[in-house]
Amino acid sequence: MPKLTKSFVDKATSSQSDLGDDYPQKYPQKFYRDSALPGFALRISGGGAKSFIVEKRINGKVKRITLGRYGPLTCEQARKEAQKVLGHIAGGGDPITEKREKIAQVVTLHEAFKSYLSTRKNLQESTIEDYTRSIEGNLKNWLNKQLIDITKDMVQTRHAKLGANSQSRANNTMRVLRAVFNHAGKQYEDAQGNSLFPTNLVDRLSQSKAWYDVNRRRTLIKPHQLKPWYEATLQLNFETTRDYFHFLLFTGLRRREGARLKWTDVDLVDRSFTIEDTKNKEPHTLPLSSFLCDLLKRRHLAKEDEWVFPSPRIESDSYLQEPRTAVARVAELANVPFTLHDLRRTFITIAESLDIPGYALKQLLNHKNPNDVTAGYIVINIDRLREPMQRITNYMIEKITNEH
Questions:
Q1: 188-215 in b/e burial notation, b at 16+ Cβ within 10 A?
Q2: Paired strand residues for 64
Q3: Domain extents for the chain?
């Protein structure tokens, strides 16, 4: 082992021929350990970057602590720093855990939220967007606050403030915040392994029974309202938004599923389309009724984008975002209050009223019941869904064109 001097470090390389017999050839890094100060070493990456490190067994495991890059840090400076670190470890210290503690003590809500998202590998893009809207939108002025500075009173006050405008939004925001605090409680620990955030501040809402009792929406467009609603959509300024509304109504899709449909997901020859990113994480293929087929063929003739329903904004190359203004305008013109999810409820209610077979209806809606053993043995071909889909479409068209 050499003594790490400026002359040696300048000449040192990461050539594989210099590696010891006990060093696997597949590793792109090389280590030169100092002969004068055990535990002090030089690490050279495969790309040639040189850094000084300390190697020492801490709590039964060999740990590596980076002191700094060679250049900004000289050999003598690194040696003195290594002596300090080794002395601290000899006295029972654990620099790695202590550094983690310091980071945890100043971690902000935004940092904790990003850390939480990074560990949730299977979250759908739509779910991430909802979570981000809750934290970065509804708690915007908290993002740079350190977690330790957020209090139970702050949580309860913000929940009440949000609830004054939307009780469901208030509840959803605090549920996401609760998940972030649960994550922080497991992610950030002290040297003894104790959580630095043992208390979830959002639990105050349960203790004080402050959660809002939000009933699930059951609104929909009734059969006699379909005609005025449809006629109101024809008065929208953007054809894309109008077609998007019609597509949701005649397919029963969730709003994001419809908005993110790409032309590569549409087969006009087979008269079908597939939603790849669904709520239950299983691709969802549906037949196109005659109405839907005509709608997509017309849109395909003028397509200039990968999205079937691109954003009408000239500067945007994304899919259509939630068109709240258009929803409000149609609701006012038709005197029919509705949300985009009401279109899905309308589709479902009409399908049930037409006595569509249960398993066919589940297939149309992409509903999965993990406790339904029988459903696991039933394979429904898309062609068997064409007749139910067309029946639902025919019913809607009849109501829309009915003069009475």
A1: bbeeeeeebbeebbbebbeeeebbbeee
A2: 55
A3: 6-93, 106-207, 223-401
